[in-house]
Specification:
The protein is α/β, with parallel strands linked by helices. The strands form 3 sheets. A 4-stranded parallel β-sheet has the order 2-1-3-4, sandwiched between helices. Bound molecules: 1,3-dihydroxyacetonephosphate and iron/sulfur cluster (SF4). The site of iron/sulfur cluster has 12 residues, from helix 9.
Length: 312
């Protein structure tokens, strides 16, 4: 039996569901029961009937799974799989910020630690951030954290003026520069452009997007699963994709007749890539590494996450 077959056998024997994010390496995506975006995976974690959830993604995602499914065992194959965006705000930063705006509603991206989520009113992901903000009464101030590019995107899409945005960023998406994008778009004149709202080039492009085009072509600002749905439905055959490059594997696999090119080949998340097939096998066979969230933190954080799950 090869490693892949051994994993599939062990997962069945131990009643484990494997959830993998769209940025995982191809071999890991291939052994997963579900591959998706942060929202989709949190939903799968909340409804699974399996005893154990093996999360192939980064630490905050596994914590979210542990919060929504407190009776399950949640494993991550590498505890070092962190996230630069989630590291861009501490719980003390948030407490101090809330003190400065005591009546504000705190909305945090799912890319935050469980401790931060316990201080939030609402949690959101890139696929529902606009709708979460729309659900908050207009006279309420909003503290939006930690991603400044997603925050600017949401504020532009909702027209919300009373929204304060934390100046955090994801180094992978912030590293996709408008020059990279322009070069790729110039070399593929018929391609549609799909872009993740965490990208730094999102903000300047919003004005063009609002006008329905960018350099005379279609532009879609979407979460990773939003991208997956869009590229399969679109009439276009070519796409320039501005997000972490791991998603291209799934796009190509599900749409073999279409062409996908990364806006930047350097857009690789080293944290997502820490999860290898060997580590998945070790995790399954040795029940490591268990991700636990203290009950008090989990109970508080669950409220914000449940609000996120209720809004699509
Ligand atoms: P989504 O998959 O929710 O769009 O998030 C992207 C991301 O950067 C997760 O770390
Ligand atoms: Fe975090 Fe960025 Fe990696 Fe996503 S791509 S896990 S936001 S560092």
């Amino acid at each position: 039996m090869n490693l892949q077959e051994e994993i599939l056998e062990l997962k069945k024997e131990k009643d484990v569901v494997i959830l993998a994010h769209n940025y995982q390496i191809p071999q890991v995506q291939d052994i997963a029961d579900f591959v998706g975006d942060s929202l989709g995976l949190a939903r799968q974690a909340a409804k699974t009937s399996h005893k154990t959830i093996l999360f192939c993604g980064v630490h905050f995602m596994a914590e979210t799974a542990a919060i929504v499914s407190p009776e399950k065992k949640v494993l991550i194959p590498d505890l070092e799989a962190g996230c630069s965006l989630s590291d861009s705000i501490t719980v003390n930063d948030l407490k101090n910020w809330k003190k400065q705006h005591p009546d504000a509603i705190a909305v945090g991206y799912v890319n935050t630690t469980a401790e931060i989520k316990a201080e939030l009113d609402y949690c959101c992901t890139s696929s529902n951030a606009v709708n979460v903000v729309k659900a908050i009464p207009e006279d309420k101030e909003i503290l939006f954290l930690p991603d400044m590019f997603l925050g600017s995107f949401v504020s532009k899409m909702t027209g919300r003026k009373n929204m304060y945005i934390w100046a955090g960023e994801c180094h992978v998406h912030a590293g996709i520069k408008p020059e990279d994008v322009t070069q790729k778009l110039d070399s593929m004149t018929n391609a549609e452009f799909v872009i993740h709202p965490e990208c730094s080039c999102t903000t300047p492009m919003l004005y063009d997007v609002a006008a329905g085009n960018y350099k005379g072509r279609q532009v879609q600002i979407l979460s990773t699963e939003g991208m997956m749905n869009h590229v399969s439905k679109s009439q276009s055959n070519q796409f320039v994709v501005a997000t972490e490059t791991g998603i291209l594997y799934r796009m190509r696999k599900q749409n073999p007749e279409k062409t996908f090119v990364a806006a930047s080949d350097k857009a690789e998340c080293q944290y997502m890539k820490m999860i290898t097939l060997q580590k998945v096998f070790d995790s399954l066979s040795e029940d490591k590494y268990e991700v636990k969230v203290p009950k008090q933190t989990a109970d508080k954080a669950r409220l914000a996450i449940e609000r996120m799950l209720a809004i699509s």
